[in-house]
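Worked example 2:
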Amino acid sequence: MKNLYRVFALSFVFILIVGCGGGSGSGGGGITQAVLSVADCSGSNCGVDSNSYTGSGVGVWRYTNTGSGAASLDISLSNVGGKDIMVVFTNEKSSSVFFPTGTMSGKFIATEITQKIEPSTSTFNDIPDHIRYFDKKEMLRQVANSSRHFAIKPSAQKNWLLNAQANWYVDEGTRTRKATLKKQTKSAGRTINVWVENAEFDDAKVTQTMLDSISSRFTNDIYSKVVSIAGEPWGEHNYSNLIGKDQPINIVFTDLPAGVVGYFWAFNNFLVGCNYGDCSNEALVFFADSKTLYLAQDGVNIMLGTLAHELTHMINFYQRDTKMSEDDVYDIFLEEMTAIMMEDVISSQIAPDFNDIRDGNYHNWLSGAHYNCDFTDWENCGTQLVNSYHVAGSFGAYLLRQHGIGFYQNLLKYPMPRPLSINDRSNSITLLNNILKTLNGEGLGRAVQRWGASIALFPATSSPSGFGYPEKIDGSFSLGAFDGNNFQFIRKLPTLQPSTLKGYSHYPVKRNITTNQYEETVAVPSGVSVTVIVK
């Protein structure tokens, strides 16, 4: 490790000398000399003519350092005077890389004009700690391997009638909230029960009108769409200590802790009573925050997106964890990313111009220090957990608009690749990489690189194929465009270069070129790509 650090340190000194002198020099100290010469776009709207910008569309060039040591990259592009130029460094690997301070010279630094806009206050689906650390895999193994751990109970369906009352275990699984069944509907043969905590049912809080609207829209616009993509949320299984196959879905609106808009906890699918310090509701249920309905701006639409998110978690537990095997459990990053993607997919079903991913996750990804965040390393993405949602949501939305619903369905239904790796995170990364490789030929690293280019804010209708967030019509699903032009005063760029570039992360730099020629030499660590965007 010490020797590796010395190589980078020596490389850094050499590159500074080259940058100041303006020449290319010879490659000493194991440094690879490279020239930016590969166009990363083609066809309509690609503004590349060899090493010159054509004057229209968007020009994109790319270099990836596939060697084991640092590289010195010469950039020379013509016909770029007065154009918007962005250079994005992307780590295409899962491991962090040392990123020497001063990699880019300061002579072309552009000061970005931003409006004083606060990050979006849109809600997000945070997870209570007891759910985040619940070991579904171990629980399923115990159930499958030995009935001694649990008392066998009958698994009959619970048939509640309208206006029935029940005590539901919430939060840490130990407190109860009394709720009343206020609405009962059916969709595709499954009963959907909508409950509300008694203390929250009030003319100034949650009203019957709200519940009727939520129930109708969820039943008619959301549930069938989500199930058509992801599959049923419950049914036949081979476990004796899980709830029976015939179950209604229960949506319980209750006053949840701050920051938690809704949650599904697979523990409630187990017939375990209160034997583990937590109490299972022994029902197919997810919980939703009642305050969001009556306090949040656009609360009803936000809640419909949340219900789709939580329904996806419910389906994942059945379709993957229960029907496949405990070894096919997603790592938390992929579990959350697939649920966020479902919010995006059904957004047009909620309202014509509603998209909580665009106005929440993507907005915040651009307006904060989120670029140097590894979306696969959940809870370790900046200083707040919410950052992980912003980054994973932005990447998921990019993948959907580039590869469509079929890609998403494959991500949901494919088992983990065998042989299994040592941990769930590695398995989930391999799964995502393998599926993307069938689409772009190169896999996850390539997708992350092109997603990182989106920081340059591609226009919705005049961008090269493979870049930005264009509108995607896929069968009955409409994924609206994220037009980069609408975010030019929201985007904020880093003011300091990081010393370490995390896995699957980016470092964007805007350049100010007043002449027609852009020439610069930059240092590129191993495994890092450089994308230059001109528009």
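The radius of gyration is 25 Å. The chain is about 30% helix and 20% strand.
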